Amino acid sequence: MSINKFNAEGYYDPTAYEALTAVEKEERAAKARLPLVYIASPFAGDLERNTERARGYCRFAVSQKVIPLAPHLLYPQFMDEEDKQQREQGIRFALILLDKCDELWVFGNTISEGMSREIAKAKNKGKPIRYFSSACKEVLE
Out of 13, 50, 52, 98, which could bridge 7 as a Cys pair, Cβ 3.0 to 4.6 Å? Predict the structure, then answer.
């Protein structure tokens, strides 16, 4: 789109030109920005196996040209998953981060309690939600 420096009557209008040029530049930058995608997958239980799967889901997300955010890979690095208070605090932190994301991607055949909360929050906020099998194949809800 080309912005004209002259208004509809043919008069030079630098203020409108600069404002419209800035809006066009912002729109182009927004289109070029990689989406931030929240990765939800089971974690509790078999921590080693679920951690490896979550890493794989993040690699898949990167291959889809998005920025993955998987709080369940971050918080257990310094918070105790077995401590109910710390686990709840980690889930609260994760839900705050979910607000910052463009989409929620749900992986696996099992929806854990934490994942249910993430899905409910995303639905409440009107965020797009995509579901994938553990093999990273998209499935219908």
Answer: 13
